[in-house]
Amino acid sequence: MADSVAEITKMAAQTGVGGLYWTAAILGMGIIVGALVLIPLRKKSPQRHLSGFRVSFFIRI
């Protein structure tokens, strides 16, 4: 019985890792496709400029 439990555990681990890989791959592709779909919408929207507002992504110490 211990052998069958070990085999089942091994199979579950292999399936879990493969499932995790495919889930990450599908989510990544979904994000890329979504970004590509939104490009034309972003080009159509009017550009808004915030006067006197500057965003800095780097913090200088």
Characterise the protein shown here:
With 61 residues, the protein is mainly α. It has one domain. It contains one helix and no strands. The radius of gyration is 24 Å and the shape is rod-shaped.
Helices and strands in order:
Elements: H1 2-44
Short description:
The protein has one helix spanning 2-44. With 61 residues, the protein is mostly helical.
Helix fraction by DSSP (H/I, runs of at least 4) = over 70%
Number of strands: 0
Number of domains: 1
> Which assembly state applies to the chains in this document?
single chain
Spans with pLDDT under 50 lasting ≥5 residues? none
Q: Helix- and strand-based class?
A: mainly alpha
Largest sheet: none
Which whole number gives the mean pLDDT?
72
Q: So how many helices?
A: 1
Strand content is: under 5%
